[in-house]
Each structure stands twice: as C-alpha cells, then as structure tokens.
Amino acid sequence: MNNSNRKKLPIGISTFNEIINENYLYIDKTKEAYNLISNHKYAFLSRPRRFGKSLFLDTLKEIFEGNQKLFKGFYIENRWNWEEKYPVIHISFSGDMRSPEGLKETILSVLKRNQENLKVECDNTNSYSNCFRELLKQTYEQYQKPVVILIDEYDKAMLDNLDQMSVAQENREILRAFYGVMKDNDRYIKFVFLTGVSKFAKANIFSGLNNLEDITLYPKFGTICGYTQMDIETIIAPYLEGVDFEELKRWYNGYNFLNEKVYNPFDILLFIRNDYIFRNYWFNTGTPSFLAKLFQTGNYNLANFEDLKVDEGLLNAFDINQLNLETIMFQSGYLTIKEQIIRRNRIEYILTYPNYETKMSFNDYLINYFVTNHQKKNRVKNGLIDTLEVADLESFEQVIKSLFASIAYNNFTNNYIENYEGFYASVFYAYFAGAGFDKIIAEDATSEGRIDLSVFIDDKVFIFEFKVNQKGALEQIRAKNYHEQYLSNYNEIYLLGIEFDSKRRNVVAYAWEKV
C-alpha cells in the first residue's frame, strides 16, 4: 500500500466521529456493539487502560443518536434501525478526583455539559444525585424517548486514591449515591453501559442495580476491545511491512478474555509510529505504584505469577477495604487468563503474564522497590546477563551477593520478609525477568518434587534451589534428580544451590556444578 493512501493512526483519539471523518484507521467493532445493545439493557465491561473502551463507548453514542452516515460499510449499517434515535447522557470521569469535594464538582460539571448538549435545564444544580435524577426525567419528557446512559471510567475516583484510602472510601459512597439514581428511574432508561478498569463488587458501589450484567468474561464479547491476530494480518498488515509477526505476538499479544487472544491497540499503534522498535509502550502509560506497595506488605512469590491458580470469586470482586494483589494485577492487565478450569460446577483460572512486554516491564519496575540505587540495579542486571550468558558461575556468586546487599529492606513493612523463601525467589525472578530473560519457570514439577527456579538461555539451563536458614540446597537438586527432564533438550545443565541467612539477609552458602 502506498503510504499516501494509508489511513492515519488514531493514537490518543477516542471520538468515533473524528476517526471516520478525518480518515483514521478503524477496526470494526460494530458487530459486538450490535449484539450488546440488542440483547442487554444494563451492562458493565472491565478492561485494562488504553484498550479502546472510550472509543467503543463513543461508537455506541453515535449509533443511538442515529448517525448512519458514519457507519457506511460496517457490520451494523444495514442491521440497525436508524430511524429510531435516542437521547444519550455521556459521562466520562476526568479532572480532580483527589478529594470528595473535587469529585462532586466533577460530577456536577459533567451533568451541566450533558444539559447543554441535550438542551435540558435542571433546577436542582447543587445536589449531584438530584440533578442526575432531574436530568433523566426531563430528557425523557422532552424527547419522548427512553434515555441511553454511557459511563466511562466509572471507577477512576476510587482507583486514583488507593494511596489515600479514606478518600477512596468517601468517593465510593458518593458514586454509590450517584449510580443509585438509575435504580429508581428504570422507566426512563433505554440502555446503560459502564466501563472501567476494576470490577468493584455490586454491593460496594452498584447497590440496587441487581440487573447489571458483567460482560467482562462473556466469550462472545472477548474481542470487544483490542486487535485480534486476524486484524493484524489483514487490516493492519500494510502498516507492518517487514515486521516479524511472531516477535510482534511475543511482545504484545496475549490478553485473554475467554475468546481469542488480543493485542492492546496502544502498543501496536505506537510500535508502528516508532518505526517498529520493540518497547514497553503500554506499560509506560501508567505506573503501578499501588501494586508495588501491596507486594511490599505481603508474602508473595513473584515466581508463581506465571502459573497462578485462582478461583472465580477472586477475579470478580475488587474491594478497597481488602485489596488483593492478584485481583488488581488481573483487572489492571498485568496478568491474564492462561486457562479456565471447570470442575463440579466450580470455575478456577490459571493466570499468567500476557506477553513479554508486561512480564519484563512489571518485574523491572518492582526491582526499584528492592534496590533504590538505580546504578546498582543496572550493574546487577548487566552482571546477571554477562555471567549467565557465558556460564561464569564463579563471578555470578559475587553478582548475587551484591544484589542482596543492595536491597532496601526497610521498604518492606512485613517484618518477617527476610525469613520467607518466596521473597528470595521473587528477587531472583524479578531480576531475571526484568533483565529480559524470556524463559523462566518457577515451581517446575518433576516426579521427585518441584524445582524452585529454572532459567533457560540458548542451549543452557540453570536449576536453582533456595534455602533460608537451612543447608543442603545443592544436595537436594542432586538427590531428586531435578536435571533429568532437561537432558534431551539442553547441551549444558547447571545446578545451583543457594542458602540464605535471614539475619544477615544475604547468601551464606553457594555451590554449583555442571551435569
């Protein structure tokens, strides 16, 4: 395709009208839109940030307002009754969310903007709940049509304040009262759709909206946001000439919402804009500081996050009074579904990192909480790469001793963290993953037991066993023949037994051998 004939890349554009009229690239999601509005009245969707939620919401707005000319050639064009037009209340939360007063002002400002757009004037402009109630009723009466309500980033006022929990809780109560208006005004409503990152329990924020359907993991809506592999290989392919599609998939594909895996659109668009340089584009749009703080306060083994088994309830509820690291990581996009297990009417999930970008970037970010000195951090990362690539395990010992000597243990509020074997495994895992080592397996099962950590580099595999205040790490690897399962596939196999002292918080015994 000639560059002059290509549509422009819609980076940062979430207005459907602008995308169509200004000749931007658009992946048709109107089939999902048609199925949604034809079969549901109250629906909720959770997706990670920068996934196209706002654009999808704006697409719904244009459909309900009957702007048929924008949908020429798309799935919905000849299926929707364009003669039926509905008034739309479009609420998008942005602005000052760092205080309850700021949230109230934001809500009133959003409602005022909707009054202006709909040419409806409310008398009660001081109470956000009463104003919303009046806006609904007056809009219905003026247009003689039920009202469509579209709410984007419904949870922003809470997520922005996880570092000041009292504000998050006050904001939750404000939003509970605001969203509760819909419960008593169903007769005025045609359709309601809310989007956000988190999935707060209905009892926490949607009290009374018992008919709100969470479509987040409905397989038929699994590709409602994001680019599919087919999109990449057809519509987007002319923008990716000469790109290794397998490498692109390794870096950016992998988000699974119980349909085919999808790419985050932001990654693909920035990858094209930046001349096909592989970088952590999505990760850099937001800093998961609250995740790092959760890790600091609990006993988590990062190495287990590649195959993390959780039950259905853990994924479906986000409670600001009891934050759970696994739940937040899944809903925020740092973990995704690897496998769904249905057993005796119970549903469990195996979670993992979606792709190389997320795995490398998240672990590299966490290293900052282990080691606050960035020069030391980079020296250790380079040392790990340099020594393991050539299997210089004598020098490797000095690198890991330097690593643990540089950890800021006062960052961790769990006073017993240094006694926890998973902590040391987490440090190793974070450094290996953050340094770009692609294949790392934790708790790899053998007939004799589980290997703490296996790291693979080219034709070499390094088998690690960790002990805290105990001896016999290398002896355990030997006795249980952990290496045997790798004999046929790797030319070089190394066994490393590493023992830590919780008081000294460092390596006190180190032994290795080549099989």
Q: Strands, helices and their partners?
A:
Blueprint: H1 16-21, H2 30-39, E1 42-46, H3 53-64, E2 88-92, H4 100-118, H5 128-143, E3 147-152, H6 156-159, H7 165-180, E4 189-196, H8 202-205, E5 213-214, E6 227-228, H9 229-233, H10 245-252, E7 262-263, H11 265-273, H12 289-297, E8 308-311, H13 312-316, H14 325-332, E9 336-343, E10 346-352, H15 356-370, H16 374-389, H17 393-405, H18 421-434, E11 439-446, E12 449-457, E13 460-468, H19 473-479, E14 492-501, E15 506-514
Parallel strand pairs: 1-4, 1-5, 2-3, 3-4, 13-14
Antiparallel strand pairs: 6-7, 8-10, 9-10, 11-12, 12-13, 14-15
Helix pairs in contact: 4-5, 15-18, 16-17
What does this structure look like?
- With 515 residues, the protein is an alpha/beta fold.
- The chain has 3 domains: 3-221, P-loop containing nucleotide triphosphate hydrolases (Rossmann fold, 3-Layer(aba) Sandwich); 227-284, no CATH class; 371-514, no CATH class.
- 38% of the residues lie in helices and 18% in strands.
- The protein contains 19 helices and 15 strands.
- The protein has helices at 16-21, 30-39, 53-64, 100-118, 128-143, 156-159, 165-180, 202-205, 229-233, 245-252, 265-273, 289-297, 312-316, 325-332, 356-370, 374-389, 393-405, 421-434, 473-479, and strands at residues 42-46, 88-92, 147-152, 189-196, 213-214, 227-228, 262-263, 308-311, 336-343, 346-352, 439-446, 449-457, 460-468, 492-501, 506-514.
- A 5-stranded parallel sheet has the order 2-3-4-1-5. A 5-stranded mixed sheet has the order 11-12-13-14-15, sandwiched between helices. A 3-stranded antiparallel sheet has the order 8-10-9.
- Strand 9 (336-343) and strand 10 (346-352) form a beta hairpin.
- Helix 4 (100-118) runs parallel beside helix 5 and helix 15 (356-370) packs across helix 18.
- The chain is elongated and about 80 Å long.
- The termini are far apart.
